[in-house]
Amino acid sequence: MAKKTMRSRVLIAAILFGAAATTTGSAAHAETLRHALKQALGSHDRIQAASADVKAGEARVDEKIHNSWYPTMEFSGHMGWEVLGNQDDGDATDLLSREFDVTIDQKVWDFGKTNAEIDMTRAQKQQLDAVLDSEKQNFVLESLTAFFNLKRSQEILAYAKQSVENIKRQGEVESVKISMGQGYTTDVLQVKAQLAGAQARVVQSMETLSQAENQIRSLFKRDPTEINRIPMPASPMSLIPTSMDEALDLAMRHNPQIEQMRKLTSAMESQRDSLRIAVHSPSIDGQVGAKIKEGVSGVDEQEKEFIAQLTFSMPINLGGGGGDGVRAAEQDLIASMRRTTDTQLQVEKAVRNSWIKLSTAKNRAGLLNEQANLAAKFLELAREERKMNKRTLLDVLNGETALINAKSDAASAEVDVKIAAYTLLVAMGSMELEVLNPGANLADLHKAPSKSEVDAVAKQQENIVQDLFDQFKHKMQTLKPVTEQKSAPAKPAAKAPEKAAVAPEQENAVEKMLRMINPNTWKQAKAE
């Protein structure tokens, strides 16, 4: 009984192991080209470098905003020995000098100069987004081309090897005929000559296959045998617009190179505005500060100072340098606009050439498939006529070579059609991983967000603003008891030290500063 139980357990374990192995094998063979490309995009150094540029651009935008509109606190101080000679109102002093300063500076307004600089930084970041998009699309096209070339090289090599085997088999037949006294030695020599040519094609095909495998390694960072197991994707022809005009319209709206130049132009425009405002408008800043010093300027006692003020500055170059900078920025803007127009023309040319190349590739593929069919029929008839001595051996061998070459050319032409279609999609700015999904169509690639999606984003932004307001309100409420405590009459037993007497002066200075910066905000905060 124990042996039967043990056998049953072993049998069940074997069945489960086999099922697991089958599932694992099925999962391995179920990998799609889209999945492999997604992994390659996530790990390739070229894409990672462009992504790092985008993150750096985001950090620069944050840095510009924080450095421009957030207050800056600065601490400074000194300790040393101060010796002063006889003063007009007193004797000479020889004191230990100590001072500690703290200031808070806040930009109040500069008439749009800082905002223009922020817009320029943000446009530069958006330009990096377009560069990343362009890198991704070109990488996907390059990877697809490498994948198709791998498949094509293997198919061409298979045809070349098939040609060698057919010629060898025909040579064996001719050798048998000679041994029986029915063949000709010249026929055998013809077979050997054809065989040498076929073997040369095999060697050439193997070199092409090796180059395709090396390209796969550099792009996918995986063994080519793994990529070779991935099945061919569906035809991309459903993604191609019905007319060239539609393709051009999509390219003008979505091509990342055009978008990159547009963002560069926007950055140049913001730079011009910033320089123009800097020349004609002042900058207003607010400052709150406090100083504690002792033994400074011959005063042998502790002094405390508090300050709250608004300052403005407007540097004017008497040589007109500011105007020169504005004119230079205007010319930079004009140059960027011209380059944008030139980029649009180059993209238009690329779309037109890709459209023509795709049309030519489709026509060529159809003709080569027809040629392969006719070559197969000719070879079949030539072999029958050879048996009846109506055809020479050279006719049959030429037919063999013509058929193999026709099949090879037809297979290569089919790959050229797919590569041309994807090249057109890149020129249109529509090369996304979604194009490899079964049943993908062009309308889904640039589908506008639905009203519900737009409302959801707006609601999310509204919630973020509400959360920020609630946090501010909570902080103001936590400060309210402190204010009430300060306004309440102090009990004799809880009398504060004399050093705390500076607190009302500091608070009054802060109040004055806030009222000068934004009276409405201060009133609302006091009401809370």
From TrEMBL:
One of its GO terms (molecular function) is porin activity. It is found in: Cell outer membrane. Keywords: Cell outer membrane, Membrane, Signal, Transmembrane, Transmembrane beta strand, Transport. Residues 1-30 form the signal peptide. Residues 484-507 have a biased composition (Low complexity). Residues 481-507 are annotated as: Disordered. One of its GO terms (cellular component) is efflux pump complex. Belongs to the outer membrane factor (OMF) (TC 1.B.17) family. This is Putative outer membrane efflux protein.
